[in-house]
Write a structure and sequence with these properties.
heterodimer, A: mainly alpha, Cytochrome Bc1 Complex, Chain D, domain 2, two-stranded antiparallel ribbon, 4 strands, B: 19 helices
């Protein structure tokens, strides 16, 4: 019996080892690479067939034959940023040494050459052999299987930037992307970010407010910081995200393309925590604005996401921070008219985040005392569902309705001193702390002429003497 | 056609061949077979003849040999991996990626190394179980049992040090959990009892600092663990393996009754060698198939600023991590493992009975086998609880529950005898209230020198605890669900902690009896505390913080 087992096991061992060697030596990239060489050789031979000069045709045919028999290998680019990109192992057309023109007619991936971007040849501006691929496209440069390389896998947090999101990568180096060619999408995102007052809660590298987190390195946010529970609640156009799409990009996108309260419900009833925690205080940007339009379209949301994905603290050597093709951004505009200046100040400091565009619609603020609400007494129960619905009616003041009750000096004082988060009047005193509050703007650089002009402008937007609530 | 036999004889008798192999032509005589073992440096670690009984598969299960074979596999695959690996934070992770994606057979190699390491931990534990069940620790093998216990500890440590090397999140945080326990060592750790107050231990001079080469897991830790993993621990392990084998050889290969030399013996070659070969081949086959089918885990690159939730130790330490829920770190992370190691080493010296050596003998050694099996089962139960029943925030999730479901934080805990509340005087009330039952369990078994009926006594205990549960229900409004916990744990502890010792070791001399009972009481105390926390949310049964007495 042992003799039989001896033979059996030895055969099995050799077989399994053979299997391992076969698997190791037959990766998919070899198929792609061989296909590419054959396709390129076919194209050359076709070209040779159309040639009139037989000598040149023969040379070309010989070249094609040589290409057909190129030995297969893992190609890698050691980038100037210290990365290792093996993308050209499959995307052979992007390998300068195989395809010096960097052009071909193949449309199918991974064989196609790099497309022109707005008519620009990217390789001329950012030589692939120097820059590599992942510095722009993200993904896992060291991987040699399609799935792992594209990065939509559990152990890689920076998957490919697809479609227009790629512009986020441009903006990481080119400070003038607002006006540069080929970066219009991310420029739109930045414009929208400031227009809708995101900086009124989120600072970027310290510039802006601290009601919520600083977004200066949001593109580096580790996924460990995001609860899978929250990912599972995300619905984009009513559909949940498949698990391989639980990416940072979709996390940001969901914040602007769906209602953040729906996937960051937190714990307003204190079911899971000792103290109640209000849902996300972020605006529902898909809701209609004062004029009845969806405030941010899906495309707007994508643009803002692209802009935010450009905010990284990853070290890129200074010599690569250069202007793109296009003018540098405008300097801070100057105003002579205090009203126009006041409006500019309103947008500059992100007041729209809470008070709506041009102060026309106060945003929701969970458990803050809404217009027309009478606060509950201190014995109010937390778990009464009706009270929960009432708590959700909390609103920030709609400035057009309340500024009429202030005079100029009162407004200036109100803005300067703010309302600290603990002092925001609550509907239910036992409910969670409202997530939004008025920062004390004197501590945040809003003073002097800016403050005066802001108050001046605010007084012009008020509807005559209506008093419908206030802080 | 040349005569093959003649050719063979020519070759074997040539000067070159004979200078290497001494034996000459093989004619399968007993002398040849013995010579084959004795004349070969690799084989002569085994005797020329072994007892027939020791050859049976169902006796040793080949566990010791497989452990050693796995060690060899690990050395071989580890050396190959070392060619590709640089122990520097930015590079280490990248080298693992290279192994995965670019090195021929690199992924396969890493898988084999990883799975062999996990298998070795398991097999070594099973080997210990087998040796225990067949009485292999008894005279004259006490010392070798202790060497074996050290080898088991070193195996765990070797596996643990290797855990850090891929430098991914899994590695960083598992090692953080593991080494934080070192910081809780009494006297030597900054967070341990008397560490800061008496020994002036701080973050930057305690034993954890020595282990990490810093205050957090960083570049120095990686180098330290690399050297420990690739050089220091394997060397030490190798030295002790030689000692272990030499003792096995000297004490007679595989347990046999002490002094019985009349048993028939068989030639080691080929009887044992062929079995060893098959065991090794089967083991390697399983490993290779395993490595082909399942990839070794590799998380995202280590990031000290982002903690995965939950963060877990390697599976073989998750049982201790689970203990952290119930005990202070210095108890869960230091006292419990050390007590286990010391307790294991004490076994040969507190069990003087010469019965049941060289065979599975449950009836001859009911106490030893019951207690040891209970310990092993508990160890794996805790691992199961920590690995499969703990979700985000280390909150209890049943294995079938999704971690995407939110769970309330556990209710606030309270102290039975602490500075505040009902039992305000832990020293005056708590120590007597808990100490008396402990002393009772300690001494009762030896003080009742009567032959009790186990079934009747157990039933009486059960009935007693049922009465207690109902009394608490109607006297103090303790719900019956909590009463059920009391009934279960109460009966379990009185059965295994009092009745079984009373039945089997009441005749032991006082010294051995007391050491045994200390170990039994500690094990039972573990269960008491688990019951107290899970059923009654009790943080500490008694807490006297000034002397770090929090149990």
């Amino acid at each position: 019996m042992y003799r039989k087992l001896f033979v059996l096991f030895n055969f099995a061992l050799v077989a399994v080892l053979g299997c391992a060697i076969w698997r190791s030596s037959h990766p998919m990239w070899k198929v792609y690479q061989r296909n590419y060489y054959n396709m390129a050789a076919d194209a050359m031979e076709k070209q040779a067939g159309e040639m009139k000069d037989p000598k040149a045709a023969a040379v070309l045919r010989e070249k094609a034959e040589e290409l057909r028999h190129t030995p297969l290998q893992i190609k890698q680019i050691l980038t100037v940023f210290g990365g290792v990109d093996r993308c050209t192992t499959c995307h052979v057309a992007m390998d300068e040494f195989v395809n010096p023109t960097m052009k071909n007619d193949f449309t199918q991936q991974p064989y196609a050459a790099h497309p022109l971007v707005d008519g620009m040849d990217i390789n001329k501006m950012h030589n692939f052999q120097k820059y590599g691929c992942t510095v722009c496209h993200q993904g896992q440069g060291m991987a040699t299987t399609a799935k792992d390389a594209h990065g939509f896998v559990d152990n890689w947090q920076k998957p490919l930037l697809k479609g227009k999101y790629i512009e986020a990568a441009c903006a990481r180096c080119h400070a003038n992307f607002e006006h540069a060619k080929g970066m219009e999408f991310v420029a739109l995102g930045k414009k929208l970010f400031y227009k809708h007052g995101c900086q009124g809660c989120h600072a970027i590298n310290g510039v802006g407010q601290t009601v919520s987190v600083d977004l200066g390195n949001i593109a580096d946010k580790p996924l460990e910081r995001i609860e899978p529970y929250n990912f599972s609640l995300i619905r984009i156009n009513g559909k949940p995200l498949p698990k391989d799409q639980w990416t940072l990009q979709n996390w940001i996108f969901a914040h602007v393309a769906s209602d953040p309260e729906s996937f960051v419900p937190n714990d307003p009833l204190a079911k899971y925590n000792p103290e109640p925690i209000a849902p996300s205080g972020m605006v529902n940007w898909t809701a209609n604005d004062a004029a009845g339009h969806r405030e941010l379209s899906e495309q707007d949301a994508e643009a803002i996401t692209a802009f935010l994905l450009s905010l990284t603290h990853e070290q890129i050597p200074y010599q690569y921070h250069v202007a793109g093709i296009g003018p540098m951004p405008d300097p801070d505009p100057h105003f002579t008219d205090p009203v126009a200046h006041g409006k500019y100040v309103f947008e500059k400091y992100g007041c729209a985040a809470c008070h709506g565009l041009l102060g026309a619609k106060g945003r929701r603020n969970f458990n803050a005392l809404g217009p027309g609400q009478v606060p509950l007494d201190r014995y109010a129960k937390l778990t009464d569902p009706q009270k929960i619905a009432e708590m959700a009616k909390g609103r920030e003041p709609t400035l057009t309705q309340v500024v009429g009750t202030y005079d100029h000096q009162e407004l200036v004082n109100k803005i300067s001193d703010g309302v600290p988060e603990t002092a925001v009047a609550r509907y239910n005193p036992n409910g969670p702390m409202p997530p939004l509050y008025m920062p004390a703007w004197k501590e945040r650089g809003l003073k002097g002429k800016e403050l005066n002009d802001l108050a001046t402008w605010l007084l012009t937007i008020g509807q005559s003497n209506q008093s419908q609530g206030g802080f | 056609m040349p005569d093959l036999e003649e050719l063979k004889s020519e070759v074997v008798n040539s000067q070159i061949w004979r200078s290497i192999f001494r034996g000459g032509l093989w004619s399968d005589t007993p002398r040849d077979r013995a010579n084959h073992m004795i004349g070969n440096v690799w084989l002569h670690i085994q005797p020329a003849k072994v007892r027939k009984r020791a050859l049976e598969w169902t006796y040793t299960w080949g566990l010791g040999g497989i452990s050693f074979f796995l060690f060899l596999v690990l050395v071989a695959s580890g050396v190959l991996l070392m060619f590709y690996y640089r122990p520097v934070p930015g590079l280490a992770f990248r080298d693992i990626k290279d192994l995965t994606y670019a090195v021929t057979l690199g992924k396969f190699l890493r898988n084999i190394h990883r799975w062999a390491a996990q298998a070795m931990v398991l097999i070594v534990i099973l080997h210990m179980l087998r040796v225990f069940l067949t009485g292999g620790y008894k005279r004259p093998r006490e010392f070798n049992w202790c060497v074996g216990v050290i080898l088991l500890t070193l195996t765990l440590f070797l596996s643990f040090t290797g855990y850090l090397l891929p430098w991914d999140q899994l590695a960083l945080w598992a090692v953080t959990v593991g080494t934080n326990m070192a910081g809780a060592t009494p006297f030597l750790g900054n967070a341990g009892p008397f560490g800061a107050s008496l020994m002036h231990m701080q973050m930057n001079n305690d034993i954890r600092f020595v282990l990490l080469g810093g205050t957090t897991v960083g570049a120095n830790t990686l180098v330290r663990f690399y050297v420990l993993h690739c050089v220091a621990v394997p060397l030490l392990l190798g030295v002790l393996i030689i000692l272990h084998f030499w003792r096995v050889r000297k004490d007679g290969f595989s347990a046999a009754p002490y002094g019985d030399v009349t048993e028939p013996k068989l030639d080691t070659w080929p009887n044992l060698i062929k079995r060893e070969y098959i065991a090794a081949a089967a083991c390697l086959l399983v490993l290779m198939v395993w490595a082909l089918l399942v990839n070794a885990p590799l998380d995202v690159i280590a990031n000290p600023h982002a903690t995965p939730n939950p963060e877990k130790a390697p599976w073989y330490f998750v049982g201790l991590q689970e203990m952290l829920v119930y005990f202070d770190p210095w108890i869960a992370g230091v006292m419990v493992p050390n007590l286990i190691i010391v307790g294991l080493m004490a076994i040969p010296f507190i069990d003087p009975s010469p019965k049941g050596v060289g065979r599975y003998a449950f009836k001859e050694r009911p106490f030893a086998n019951t207690m040891f099996l209970m310990g092993i089962i508990m160890w794996f139960c805790f691992i199961f609880m920590g690995e499969f029943c703990r979700g985000p925030n280390f909150v209890w999730y049943w294995p079938w529950q999704s971690w995407l479901m939110q769970k309330p934080a556990p209710p606030p805990t309270w102290n039975l005898f602490g500075p505040t509340g009902v039992g305000k005087f832990p020293l005056a009330l708590g120590l007597p209230a808990l100490g008396l039952p402990v002393l009772a369990i300690m001494f009762l078994p030896k003080l009742i020198q009567k032959n009790l009926s186990l079934a009747k006594a157990a039933l009486a205990c059960f009935a007693g605890f049922v009465v207690v549960a109902f009394a608490l229900r109607y006297g103090a409004h303790v719900p019956l669900s909590q009463g059920a916990w009391i009934v279960f744990f109460g009966t379990f502890i009185s059965f295994f902690g009092v009745l079984i010792p009373q039945r089997h070791i009441r005749g032991l001399d006082w010294a051995r009896y007391l050491v045994t009972m200390v170990l039994v009481v500690c094990t039972m105390g573990l269960l008491v505390k688990i019951c107290a926390r899970l059923a009654f949310n009790i943080k500490y049964l008694v807490t006297i913080p000034s002397v770090f007495l929090n149990v």
